[in-house]
Design a protein that fits this description.
The protein has two helices and 13 strands, in the order αβββββββββββαββ. Helices cover 11% and strands 46% of the residues. The chain has one domain: Jelly Rolls (Sandwich), CATH 2.60.120.430. A hairpin with a 3-residue loop joins strand 9 and strand 10. With 240 residues, the chain is mostly beta strands. The longest helix has 17 residues.
Length: 240
Amino acid sequence: MCNPVKKVILILLAVAAAFLSCASVERVSVLLPDGSQPFLLMDFRTPFSMDALPEGWYHRKFKRHSPMVLSFVTRDNRPSLRVETDDSASMLFRHVDVDLDSYPLLSWDWFIEKAIDSSIDERTFKGDDHPARLFLKFEDNAGKQHSMELIWGNSVLKSGDWKHLKMFGLYSFPHYVVNGGMDNVGQWHHESVDLRKIYQKLWGDPRNVHLIDIAIFCDTDETGTQSIAYFSDIAVERAP
C-alpha cells in the first residue's frame, strides 16, 4: 500500500505540474479587446475543430486521465460549448491580454445538466472536482503572475464562498464559488464578477493588471464521477 504522506505529495506534484505546464505553452494569436462592449473572449457561435484548434487556443490534457469531451451544440436556442466528463479532466485555454482598468467585469452564461454526485468533501484534494470552472491567470506590470478559479459548488460550497487548497504548504490556491447546488441545476445562469475586486482581495492593487489566460476546466477525476455542463458568451465588459 502506498505511504499516505507519499500519496499526498504525488497528488500535490500532479496538481502543481498541471498549472505550471500551462506557462510553457507558446502564446500566439493572443486576443486583444477591440473596444466593443461587451467583448467576447470565448465565442462558441461558430464551431471550430477541437482536433486542430485555432491559434491562440490550447487544450491542456493530463497524463493519467482522459480529457473532457467537447462539442458545439445549441441549448435552448443558445449556441454553446457542451463539456462532458467521466472520471476525466482537462482545460481549454484561450490566450488573451485584457487590461482590467479598461475591462474589469467578466461575464458568462453556464448551464449544469449533470452535477457531481459524491459524498467526498469538495473542500479537500480528494473531493476537488467541479462540473464547471473558469481558470484565470493574471499578470501585473512587473511581470508577476497569479492564478485562481471561479467555480460551481457541489453540495457544501455555496455562492460567495471561497475554497483554498494548500500547494506544498507554500501557497494557497484560491477558488471563488460563483454559483452551485442541486437546486440550480437544469437552468441557464448569467454571471458577472468584478475581476478588480477579486484581485484586490487576493493580491492587492489591481491597477495595471492584465488577464492573460482564461480556461474552461471541468473535472471528475478525483471522485470518479460524471458531469455535463454548457458554457456560452464568455466576455469582458467595461464598468457601468
